Amino acid sequence: MSIAMPAPDEGTLAKRDRIIAAMQAIVPGEGVITQADALRPWESDGLTAYRQPPMLVVLPETVEQVSAVLRWCHGEGVKVVPRGSGTSLSGGALPLADAVLLGMGKFKRVLDVDYEDRVAVVQPGVTNLAITQAVEARGFYYAPDPSSQIACSIGGNVAENSGGVHCLKYGLTTNNVLGVELVLMDGEVVRLGGRHLDPAGLDLLGVVVGSEGLLGVVTEVTVRILPKPETARAVLVGFPDAESAGACVAQVIAEGIIPAGMEMMDRPAIHAAEAFVQVGYPLDVGALLIVEVDGPAAECDHLIGEIARIADHNGATTTRVSQDEAERMAFWAGRKAAFPAVGRISPDYYCMDGTIPRRQLPHVLRRMEELSAHHGLGVANVFHAGDGNLHPLILYDANVPGELDRAEEFGNDILRLCVEVGGVLTGEHGVGIEKRDLMPVMFGEEDLKQQQRVKCAFDPDLLLNPGKVFPTLHRCAELGRMHVHHGALPFPELPRF
Amino acid sequence: MLAPRDAQDLRAIIADAAASGRKLELRGGGTKADFGAPREAEIVSLTALSGVVDYDPAELVLTVRPGTPLAEIEALVAGEGQMLAFEPWGDAAATIGGTVAAGVAGSRRVTAGSARDHLLGLTAVSGRGEVFVAGAKVVKNVTGYDLPKLLAGSWGRLAAMTELTLKVLPAPRVTTTLAAHGLSPRAAHAAMACALGSNADVSAAAHLKRGITLLRVAGFAPSVEARCAALAGLLSDHCSLSLLDEAAAAPLWAEAMTGHKLAGAVGWRIHLPPRHAPALVETLEPLGIDWAMDWGGGRLWVALDNAGPDVRMLAAQAGGEATLVRADAPTRGRIPAFPPRPAGVAALETRVARAFDPTGVFATTRFAEDAHADQLSA
Question: What local confidence, expressed as pLDDT, does residue A483 receive?
Fold first, then answer.
């Protein structure tokens, strides 16, 4: 619990009754939640170690209401924290004691599907999976598939630039969103992008996706939908160690194959998953790969053969190819159950999310074992092997005093290691509050200031989701200041022609 | 023209211009100099900032300096059986920096994404004369704001990139073109929509005015063979398809992808919802236009003899946006390159531009968007 949030503003807390009255005037009925017991379910998101009841919750139903809420809060200097389904694993939707929590859960409609142009227009509270469900009867789906897809909302996906196991081949949210309607903190409603590719002007949509709710509140999303592949097949491969599994992954890609999914699990994760779901994972291996290919049957058959050959070449000890859909799903069942499975062997676990250059995997796993010994906490690893996105699960017991803090320290050490080997702090979960204070490990002061200047262009009073992403809050006026470098006549030595 | 030798030179030039209120225009190979309005600005040539910094094919990541010729990069990655999936194109002098800054993408863009989707990270000098890093050198990253997206397609209005990290992907082993002949724009669009909406994994679809429809099927040989066979059946109600050999197909794709061959002094590029493309073509044809359709109808190149007809307005009525890509200087002085955005978006865009370039060092008269930069910087 080492991450501090900004101190609540006493002036805001003092006018809570007036804020409630104003919100009730904008969102009538049951759309404003104020009672302490009713606020409790909203006190946390997917990063449950951090809890803070919001000052109040507002659940608007129309874009006009969202705009009016933001305009009023902007005028009064009241902070706002937007929230989709609250599944963020980095604390992106953690409430603040002096902020309105703006829940977008009532925006649940699929507005339009255009199969000819392959786009769907949906409200932000529609779940990721519901988009696929809305279009699958016609043979389409929405490609990004974060593991929380039954619950997480597309608005939250936009905020976090969510990924999933298929994103090496199909991209993250940012590669699958064509447009949004966005309400700025001052209440202005803008449309960025639309139903066609590559709109004119600066790619504002590109920076809004993944901005973690700091730039605006999304009220409508236009996504691309894709034709569902004809078939999918998976192969389950066991290796004596992570080195050989990593070499196999590298060779698959070197031979020109981009699998739909390529997941690796280490020994602790394999054992936890197998004990939980009994899908027949080999227990005598050091690393397990699930490689899935999709497309026409002819392609899948060809690629599965190639992958089995490459696995064999890299010292695979077991290779099983899915013979039918049930077996393919069984291969995945263990991987998809890895988190709850680890939850069975440990009272609590803390899920990390760094990305590394894949060639660094053996080194990183070795260092992680050392860190595990140093911190006295176990770790299990699941890994989106194709794109280098690592999810170490740190095992701890929150009821043991000090263990949560140690788990956080261990996690921070892992993320520092990821950056040290040329990777990043987060591949898909977002910075939120969780990695906020580690941002200087990856970015210099000027890098962070440049990002914050973009924030200032959208929200100059820093009222939207403050305390997230950036370790240091700079006032926008201070960030805008230019340090003029006066000096000698410029560059007499430079070639001019 | 200023020719910085390295990133330090470049930083000093920009810092000095910011301090002294001069305007700079960033330039790669200069192949797109005739885009946008005539302007007066000191040219900063980035061609000396050239070369590959790091290329690790197995990691699918390539880091290069902006002045590196595009052709050199394409040859390098092709040597490893890889490609830039957004299918950039340009004249011989085109650089990777200019290509990304202009948001250039080829026919494959419809399925593989644009330059913005493949720019993973960068180092740049802002209009403040300060060096910053954004994004990263791995294929999957959500740490901090995605500033590379903003710089891709920004035409040098925000910052000067000194290093770009791009995602590369395996090149398909086999690329096949299926062609149909004699289709009307409407029939061609329907066939392309059917193909792109099928699970035959068509990677590009284009249609030329003289009635040639092109579908690209790429991948591993057994898969390409199966998908080509499937497409013939899927499209049997629309057209009959024949295999086109690659020597014949390549120039046709180039026509559809670049619009360069179109006859007419004034050229437009229209991005629009594909379903509206046939009607727009039908509206424009009586005006005597030449045209080519790419991205299954999502990109329409239009050329005509003069700037008389309001192509921009007609494109807007079709839900699209028309960008002026070819015209003489007086016309480019009169008609802004990009269509105007709604006031709220335009104001936001200006604030974002000033977040990188507060004094408007890069805000020349080339783009109407920057016309008021001087007043706003106060």
Answer: 64
